[in-house]
Specification:
This protein is mainly beta. 10% of the residues lie in helices and 31% in strands. The protein has a single domain, classed as Jelly Rolls (Sandwich), CATH 2.60.120. It has a 5-stranded antiparallel sheet, with helices on one face. Strand 9 and strand 10 form a beta hairpin. It is globular. The termini are far apart.
Length: 194
């Protein structure tokens, strides 16, 4: 897979939450991050869990500007109608196939098949559900900017029923480890001779 030449977000220390009032990164940057990580299974393969008893999202990477989650899905698993608070996002299905269900007021929901490592942009305020209707497990990579602080859940009439805070979790990868894996030919900082 060839990544586009978008500027890489700066590496930062692990985030303890979103920067107050931070604007989301551009959609193309979120898509590049998601696609790049989806194309690098060694970074997430040992972390993803396909548990038939429930989804087990793992926070893979976090900076002050964005965070990345990897989620394993078994047949029939879904979230429920939700948004991502003040965060924009990008989702890439790295393995298998998922269906995004987007409700419409006064009409049937619109469904998008997610697969083939094609990023799906999620604008701030997008309300949707994601489900695995396939017989095989699926793995998805989710990038959110700024990092998630809350998710609101909705009933079928799009009435909010609960807003849950999203507590920051310690990421599995340090930003520099991911940067080295995704950009192996990038120059390394020189260390001073002692």
């Amino acid at each position: 897979m060839t990544l586009t030449a978008s500027p890489a977000p700066p590496a930062a220390a692990p985030s303890t939450g979103a920067c107050a009032g931070a604007e989301p990164l551009p959609a193309a940057v979120l898509a590049d991050i998601a696609a790049g990580l989806a194309a690098a299974p060694p970074l997430w393969r040992s972390v993803v869990r396909h548990d038939p008893d429930g989804r087990r999202p793992a926070r893979l990477l976090a900076t002050d500007r964005y965070e990345v989650w990897v989620i394993g899905w078994t047949t029939g698993q879904h979230v429920r109608l939700h948004d991502h608070g003040t965060s924009a996002g990008a989702v890439v299905v790295a393995e298998g196939e998922l269906v995004e269900v987007v409700p419409r007021v006064g009409g049937p929901p619109v469904e998008h098949v997610l697969g083939g490592v094609r990023p799906r942009h999620l604008a701030v305020g997008t309300v949707h559900d994601v489900v695995n209707r396939a017989a095989a497990p699926a793995t998805s990579i989710h990038v959110y900017s700024p990092p998630l602080t809350s998710m609101t859940y909705y009933d079928d009439d799009l009435t909010p029923v609960a807003t849950d805070p999203v507590a920051p979790e310690r990421p599995v990868l340090a930003p520099r480890a991911a940067a080295r894996a995704l950009h192996p030919s990038a120059p390394r900082p020189r260390q001073e001779a002692r």
